[in-house]
Design goal:
The protein has 450 residues and is an alpha+beta fold. Helices cover 47% and strands 18% of the residues. It is built from 13 helices and 11 strands.
């Protein structure tokens, strides 16, 4: 097919493609479509395959033209995009035709489509970019905190002997909100609600108010909430709640000894073995988190120094993906999630707008990484992937063969390859970027840092 093409750059990394198809190819396409009609048409008075073309053109002229036009456009675009590298369309949205031209077999056919392409980002220098590396030392207190968490996860939950509510007790309560006349407000009753006192993980945040209550005791609580309360349903309001304590329990923590270590995992013989493993895992987590913070800082600066626009279809696909993931987390459908959000006084549009800023930053970071990987020709060898398998095995306590099985799925392996490429890229960048010592922070604060 003889084609001439013209690409015009538009805003937000969009492109307008204008294609002209030679008159000869237009004629041949129409004749090919017409011959298919002749071959398959069944019209009373004619045998199949013997209907005159002129009869078909009189009866189905517009349909034949439409089919010929559609096939002609598809073939032309496929031919253009097979050869094109820079201006290939993104998969998020189909090219859109601005105006449908008339199919005239006596003329060349010219049409235009618009679509989004991958942004062209060229980073020539890292001057002015510097990264600070947090200074973190894992202490005995950090290990003790982790041991405490393991104790709590392996604790037995038993009834409390004196049945009096105290901080850190696990309580079961019935509650309801009351109106000014002391009557229960419809829809606010909740039975057998379980939470740990002191966590604030209850809708009215009445942890302090129920301390001192006993099992089967009922109490009316009047609580005034601050105007800046994080919950807009409570902020600046006064609520009256009736609460009945149904059960008071405590965690019976196991002793920290060799037996406990052996109960946690067969790989531990002594408590010292478990502590050593905890220290090793915390060190791995620390290094991974520091690397993540350094990379995030680097990318934030590169995004700031290299301004470009995100394609509209790319941003919309990212927002739709977040919405669908949220629906999965709530174990519902995207449509049902929208109804749930509306019932809570919000809307899908409002939430997507709130997500847009973070989504744009994330996409820009990803685009910069992909662009740098291509411009620097970053690749990984099979030997480097084998080294990654061994590294993962050492960090996770798995065998190398089990790690390979985990990444046997092509998509999972591709994720590993992409991750290895990124690591290689950042290693190269840090040869050009100044990395200095940052503030000293605790292991715990490291994971809340941004």
């Amino acid at each position: 097919m003889k084609l001439t093409t013209e690409f015009t750059k538009l805003e937000k990394s969009a492109v307008k493609l204008t294609v002209t198809i030679a008159k000869k190819d237009v004629e041949e396409s129409y004749k090919s479509t017409l011959s298919k009609y002749v071959k398959n048409a069944q019209i009373p008075g004619f045998r199949k395959g013997h209907v005159p073309a002129s009869v078909l053109e009189r009866k189905f002229g517009e349909s034949i033209k439409a089919d010929s036009f559609g096939e002609l456009i598809d073939n032309a675009l496929n031919e253009v995009f097979e050869k094109e590298t820079e201006n290939r369309p993104l998969p998020y949205a189909q090219p859109m035709m601005e105006q449908v031209p008339e199919l005239d077999m006596t003329k060349d056919l010219t049409f235009s489509v618009t679509y989004d392409v991958f942004p062209n980002v060229e980073i020539k220098s890292f001057s002015g970019v510097s990264v600070k590396e947090p200074q973190v030392t894992i202490t005995e207190d950090d290990i003790a905190e982790e041991l405490k968490g393991m104790q709590e996860r392996n604790a037995m939950v038993i009834d409390k002997k004196d049945n009096t509510v105290e901080k850190d007790n696990i309580v079961t309560i019935n509650y309801a909100e009351l109106d000014d006349d002391g009557k229960v407000i419809d829809g606010t009753t909740r039975e057998d609600f379980v939470f740990t006192v002191g966590t604030g993980e209850n809708i009215y945040k009445i942890d302090d108010e129920i301390i001192g209550m006993k099992k089967d005791e009922t109490k009316e609580i009047t609580k005034k909430y601050k105007k800046d309360d994080a919950d807009p349903e409570l902020a600046g309001k006064t609520k009256k709640i009736t609460v009945t304590v149904k059960a008071v329990k405590v965690r019976d923590l196991p002793a920290l000894d060799d037996d406990f270590a052996q109960d946690v995992s067969e790989k531990y013989k002594t408590l010292a073995d478990m502590k050593a493993d905890i220290s090793k895992n915390m060190e791995t987590a620390k290094n991974r988190r520091i690397k993540e913070l350094k990379n995030n800082s680097l990318l934030e600066q590169l995004v700031e120094k290299n301004q470009f626009e995100i394609p509209a279809s790319m941003l919309q696909a990212e927002l739709d993906g977040r919405w669908n993931m949220m629906a999965q987390q709530f174990q519902t459908t995207p449509e049902q999630l929208e109804k749930m959000i509306l019932a809570s006084g919000q809307s899908k549009e409002t939430m997507l707008t709130q997500w847009t800023g973070d989504s744009e930053k994330m996409l820009k970071s990803r685009i910069i990484v992909d662009s740098l990987i291509r411009s620097k020709n970053i690749s990984v060898t099979p030997e480097e992937i084998d080294a990654e398998y061994e590294k993962i095995a050492a960090e996770s306590g798995m065998s190398v063969e089990d790690v390979k099985k985990h990444y046997a799925d092509p998509r999972a392996k591709q994720y590993l390859i992409d991750d290895a490429k990124e690591s290689k890229l950042f290693d190269e960048i840090y040869k050009e970027v100044k990395v200095s010592k940052g503030d000293k922070i605790s292991f715990k604060d490291l994971f809340s840092a941004r």
